[in-house]
Amino acid sequence: MKILMATMKMEIGGAETHILELARALHSRGVDVTVVSAGGVYAEQLVSDGIVHVTAPLHTRRPDQVLRAMSILRRLIRDGGFDVVHAHARIPALLCHLLCRQYRVRFVTTAHLNFHVNFLWRLLTRWGEQTVAVSDDIKQYLIDDYGVCRDNISVTINGINTDTFSPAIDPAPVMEALSLSADRHRIVCVSRMDTDRSEAALQLAAIAPKLYAYDPDIEVLLVGDGNDFARLRAAADAANAEVGHTVVRLTGARTDISVLIAAGDIFVGVSRAALEAMAVAKPVILAGNQGYLGIFTKDMFEVAYDSNFCCRGAEDTAPDLLYRDITALLSMTEEKRQALGQDGRAVICAHYSVSRMADDYLAVYDAVRPYKPFTHGDLLFCGYYGFGNMGDDSLLRAIIANLRRIDPDARMTVMSRCPDKTARMYGTHAVNRFNPFSVIRAMRHAKVLIFGGGNLLQDGSSARSLYYYTWILKTAKRCGCRIMVYANGIGPLHLEKSRRAAADALSLADIITLRERDSVHECEVLGVRCDRIRLTADPAFTLREADPSWVSGLCARYGMVNGKRYFVVALREWKKDEERRCAAMAAICDRMYEEHGLIPVFLPMHEPLDMEINRAVQLRCRCETLLLSGLTGGEMLGLLRRVEFVAAMRLHTLIYSTAVGTPAIGLAYDGKLRAFMETTGQPYMLEEPDEAAFMRYAGELLVQRDALSDALLSALDTYRAQAMQDAADALSLLRE
User: What is the pLDDT, as a whole number, of residue 118?
Assistant: First the structure.
């Protein structure tokens, strides 16, 4: 694999150290890494490690320098043969995005900070096909402020080299070079001394005289440089003048950070520098421009982790807080301070290894690297895609992922209502499903039509959709495509002419896989002529669950509290008598809360279509309720794992709950729900929101929940194997 990384500069800083350690780790694994930046002390270290560094003025917005940087990047990307271009800052990301589109090279980005957003920056900022965030809150920032698809964002950590940053480091060389006394109690703060990052250092200088009065052996060592260094120098000079000798020392920019940290007794700072101090087993006070968490203890890990140890969302850093915690540490015994330091190092070894960071990035590179951009795909997907239906969009993601696990180079085109959005989300080519000229052109270039999944051939919602899909099948066959009806359900087909049209279209297929036994039987009744028909499982069974820490953050943001119990309600419009049914469903929710203490969580699967009915029932409830929206399939899996059971009118809510072993009560507005529940051995079905029947079912389900969950989980391997066989069958058609 050959990777080009682009950033502004390789001077001392948290993001720059992240890039340095990542490049070293990838290089040690045999990855060919080139870094392009405006240079700096870390650029020299890259070169000494055998990693290529190219100098380009990516640190400035001056038009002449931007054009020069563009020229250097153009030559690298055009002639370098890189598999992936990876940008780590906004200016390089914009330039690399333009060039990667031109030369058809895959493009990823990393977000290290949550910058201030205005209209111009939002307009100019470009994120990659996959984006890596260094914390969950930065991932949320990308979603909220830039609208980045959350399924295209991975979260990694600031990997720390625990050999470089170790309690075994001998601080003697730096103490001798800086004339530091071994008898002093030394507070070390490492930071880029810019106006947006220097607050803790400035406050340390301000309270230095007070600390000296508490302990005359105190010394404050401030490490780093930046645009606020002059103000910091003035604060240090004022403190030293007040005390009468040097109590605050400034080192400026240094590369021997590990040794400087080892020379201290207490560390003050945030982000990567704080993690490095923890790796050296120093007690750490988390304090910075974005907030104050105080003395780090292992019980604080989850709170600190959520903001990547930057204290975002915590109370403001203040001199009195710093003084309180520094003096608290100084008053401890040496053994207790060492125990705090060892707890910090244990956290780093368990959660912040460079090896894990490299694994995270290699997974992202693998997600984009193998397949190249193209104009037309060999595999053409037809389904209910691009309409904002979570179930169908998750189907598409699962099918594409399963195909790429077997053949990463497979070229795919998706027929979508929103082709641009679909292409960005899934890394495929896409065409407008309502433009017949684009569709036919795609069919003429395709070799296999992937039809589905979902219940596409039905006239229950509209006969027009049935005729659209039968036209697709017939036109694809005339264009020379082989056809796979992929994990479909068939029906309902009420009209005789609909049944004839569906039978004729299905008979054109080369392979038909169906997700319910009822659909297999329906094909037999229709007289479908196809030699390769088999029962399968829905592709959604192969979806990957979102990271538990991310799901925990989502639940907290939506108001789901640890210690409380929940059940999910997923409704869609009833075809008639809606007012009575809404009232009945609200009464059920109230009784579940009163008798079992379960809080209903309303979950509209197809937005905005399902939002109105779910909100209508929610507003009728007297009990505490929640309404969640905008979740992806992976997030849905994580959420449903945390609830007691599910009551759903949407098929894919039931599929997701089954995939994580959460029992369900099906509200069968449609035969496909009953068929699914019977196929998976789940007995609880209601045609109507009958309060007495629902409460009886819910009572039985809650008593038997563990046994029901084990039974569901025991069948998952079979379902996933069936879903993966569908991908293998599709690719066999392509090879044939």
Answer: 74
Q: Which of 147-161, 217-231, 362-376 has the highest mean pLDDT?
A: 217-231
pLDDT for res 114 = 80
- Point out the domain boundary residue: 523, 542, 561: 542
Question: What is the CATH number for 33?
Answer: 3.40.50.2000
Closest to 391 in 3D by CA, of 632, 585, 212, 141: 632
Pairing of strands 565-570, 482-490: unpaired
CA end-to-end distance (rounded Å), the chain: 30
Two structure tokens written together for 343: 């707890």
Q: Locate tokens 């899934």: which residue? A: 426
Which residues does residue 277 pair with via DSSP β-bridges, in sequence order? Answer: none
Give domain status of residue 30, yes or no.
yes
**Cβ neighbours, 10 Å, residue 505:** 25
379 shares a domain with 518: yes
* Token pair listed for 668: 């069968």
Residue 371 has pLDDT above 60, yes or no: no
Q: Tell whether 46 and 79 lie within a shared domain.
A: yes
Tell the residue number behind the tokens 């990957």, with chain if given.
544
Q: To the nearest whole percent, how much of the chain has pLDDT over 70? A: 99
Q: Are residues 250 and 136 part of one domain?
A: no
Helix H, strand E, coil C: the string for 669-693 is CCHHHHHHHHHCCCCCEECCCCHHH
Q: Do 319 and 269 have their domain in common?
A: yes
Separation of alpha carbons 370 and 366, rounded Å: 7
Instruction: Kindly report the number of other CB atoms within 10 A of residue 435's CB atom.
Output: 13
What pLDDT does residue 373 have? 62
- Encoded tokens for 315: 């109370």
The burial class, CB within 10 Å (0-12 / 13-18 / 19+), for 587 is: middle
Q: What is the 3-state secondary structure (H, E, C) of 312-345?
A: CCCECCCHHHHHHHHHHHHHCCHHHHHHHHHHHH
Instruction: Give residue 703's identity as a one-letter amino acid code.
Output: V
> SS3 for 300-314, per residue?
HHHHHHHCCCCCCCC
Determine contact, residues 306/553, Cβ cutoff 8 Å.
Answer: yes
For residue 344, is it within any domain? yes
For residues 553 and 531, membership in a common domain is answered with no
Rounded CA-CA distance 223/205 in Å is: 12
Task: Encode 333-376 in three state secondary structure.
Answer: CHHHHHHHHHHHHHHHHHHCEHHHHHHHHHHHHHHHCCCCCCCC
Domain-embedded: residue 364: no
Does 511 lie in the same domain as 625?
no
Residue 448 lies in domain: 373-542
Is the domain of 225 the same as that of 279? yes
Return d(Cα 324, Cα 335) in angstroms, integer.
Answer: 20
Q: How far apart are CA 201 and CA 205, in angstroms?
A: 6
What's the mean pLDDT in 708-727? 95
Q: Is 408 helix (H, G, I), strand (E, B) or coil?
A: coil
- Between CA 199 and CA 53 the distance in angstroms is 33
Mean of all residue pLDDT scores within the chain: 92
Q: Are residues 397 and 432 in the same domain?
A: yes
Report whether 592 contacts 698 (CB < 8 A). yes
Domain count for the chain, please give it.
4
pLDDT at 704 over 80: yes
